[in-house]
């Protein structure tokens, strides 16, 4: 089996797993207990918190452990709105955000009297900072723009957006689940007030994430999603899962130190893959910008086929036709629709994502098999006339 769906999830790096294992059965104490064993694991959790903080240029106390980026995004959006709603109630975001962001905004609009403005991207998948600035009003509370898109891999200009947010005294949140380990993130330089992180996108375990909540130049306040013992600065109560915390700390440390190497490997594989396909197939379309895109991602469409048929035929290769979080619904991608991809090409699109353990042989094999399958599908397709 060949796995080329690294943006959906990544395998746990063996180095990360090795770091985690003692905390399941040997160093198993409750991190919140005040005896020796609790203090011992508390130090290890705080070391993991520090690794996350230094990666994004934050303070240790600004990192809150969560169950993943979905929870982090929910805490950021709903928590901030519920704290500040009596002063401001307008949130600016985009039409290509992750579903958990869009659904959270929909909830706030429907149930909490929030005013939501969603900015459309250009055809390359880029959100214009000028459009964001033009949407700001006197009651604007927050801007929420993801760093890297989960379907088309496009990179947004966080620094420009952050400057606009600071100019108008508006909070700035970014979902960075797909960005950590692929691009440099500096929350101070970019003017980011809240940042969401996921463990399983960076070769760490599932079930763990983090939320950066700024304390400087002003302390950000928010209402927690649920009540409990007041852990994590009272933002996220509950007993911390020590093995997972240690795991995300080690994963982010490795991801940052090996980012250049990982990016170079992914870019070489992507270029090779695209070269083979374009040399042997007509009607190949790249969805989104190739220039402003993480090297791990390709979102392609082949004229004259249905992507579901292609993926079904590639039985020994893991790809995806839509983002994993939307895979229960067989409908065209809302991200591709937002950048103006026609329905016939949207239904012919799929995402391939290369990772740390992808190889040249896997890429060549996959490209050759795709060429064969596409030609077979086109031979029986009424949509293909060339």
Topology:
Layout: E1 2-3, H1 14-20, H2 22-25, H3 36-56, E2 63-66, H4 69-84, E3 90-94, H5 99-111, E4 115-119, H6 129-135, E5 140-144, H7 158-167, E6 171-175, H8 187-190, E7 194-198, E8 209-213, H9 242-257, H10 259-280, E9 284-286, E10 297-302, H11 307-313, E11 317-318, H12 334-338, H13 343-346, E12 349-353, H14 360-379
Parallel strand pairs: 1-11, 3-4, 3-5, 5-6, 6-7
Antiparallel strand pairs: 2-8, 7-8, 9-10, 10-12
Helix pairs in contact: 1-9, 3-9, 4-5, 10-14
Describe what is shown at a glance:
The protein is of the alpha/beta class and 386 residues long. The protein has helices spanning 14-20, 22-25, 36-56, 69-84, 99-111, 129-135, 158-167, 187-190, 242-257, 259-280, 307-313, 334-338, 343-346, 360-379; strands spanning 2-3, 63-66, 90-94, 115-119, 140-144, 171-175, 194-198, 209-213, 284-286, 297-302, 317-318, 349-353.
Descriptive overview:
It is globular, with a radius of gyration of 22 Å. The longest helix has 22 residues, at 259-280. It contains 14 helices and 12 strands. The protein has helices at residues 14-20, 22-25, 36-56, 69-84, 99-111, 129-135, 158-167, 187-190, 242-257, 259-280, 307-313, 334-338, 343-346, 360-379; strands spanning 2-3, 63-66, 90-94, 115-119, 140-144, 171-175, 194-198, 209-213, 284-286, 297-302, 317-318, 349-353. Strands 2-8-7-6-5-3-4 form a 7-stranded mixed sheet, with helices on both faces. It has a 3-stranded antiparallel sheet with strand order 9-10-12, with helices on one face. A two-stranded parallel ribbon has the order 1-11. Helix 1 packs antiparallel against helix 9 (242-257), helix 4 runs parallel beside helix 5 and helix 10 packs parallel to helix 14. The chain has 386 residues and is of the alpha/beta class. Helix content is 40%, strand content 13%.
């Amino acid at each position: 089996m060949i796995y080329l769906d690294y943006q959906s999830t990544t395998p746990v790096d063996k180095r990360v797993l090795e770091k985690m294992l003692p905390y399941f059965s040997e160093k198993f104490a409750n991190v919140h207990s005040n005896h020796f064993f609790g203090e011992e694991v508390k130090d290890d959790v705080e070391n993991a918190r520090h690794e996350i903080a230094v990666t994004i240029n934050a303070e240790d106390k600004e990192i809150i452990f969560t169950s993943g980026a979905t929870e982090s995004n929910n805490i950021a959006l709903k928590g901030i709105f519920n704290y500040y709603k009596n002063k401001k109630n307008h949130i600016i975001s985009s039409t290509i955000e992750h579903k958990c962001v869009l659904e959270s905004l929909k909830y706030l609009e429907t149930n909490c009297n929030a005013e939501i403005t969603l900015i459309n991207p250009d055809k390359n998948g880029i959100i214009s900072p000028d459009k964001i600035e033009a949407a700001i009003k006197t009651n604007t509370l927050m801007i929420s723009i993801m760093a890297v898109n989960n379907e088309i891999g496009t990179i947004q200009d966080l620094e420009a957006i952050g400057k606009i947010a600071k100019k108008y005294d508006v909070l700035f949140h970014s979902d960075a689940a797909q960005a950590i380990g692929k691009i440099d993130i500096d929350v101070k330089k970019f003017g980011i007030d809240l940042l969401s992180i996921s463990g399983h996108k960076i070769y760490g375990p599932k079930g763990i994430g983090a939320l950066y909540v700024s304390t400087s130049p002003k302390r950000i306040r928010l209402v927690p999603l649920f009540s409990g013992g007041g852990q994590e600065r009272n933002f996220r109560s509950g007993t911390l899962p020590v093995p997972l915390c240690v795991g995300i700390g080690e994963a982010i440390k490795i991801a940052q130190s090996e980012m250049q190497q990982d990016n170079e490997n992914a870019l070489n594989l992507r270029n090779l893959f695209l070269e083979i396909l374009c040399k042997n197939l007509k009607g190949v379309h790249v969805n989104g910008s190739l220039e402003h895109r993480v090297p791990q991602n390709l979102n392609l469409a082949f004229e004259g086929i249905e992507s579901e048929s292609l993926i079904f035929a590639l039985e020994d290769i893991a790809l995806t036709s839509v983002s994993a979080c939307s895979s229960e619904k067989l409908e065209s991608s809302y991200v591709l629709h937002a950048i103006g991809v026609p329905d016939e090409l949207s239904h012919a699109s799929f995402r391939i994502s290369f990772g740390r353990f992808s190889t040249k042989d896997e890429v060549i094999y996959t490209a050759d098999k795709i060429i064969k399958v596409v030609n077979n599908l086109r031979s029986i397709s009424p949509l293909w006339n060339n």
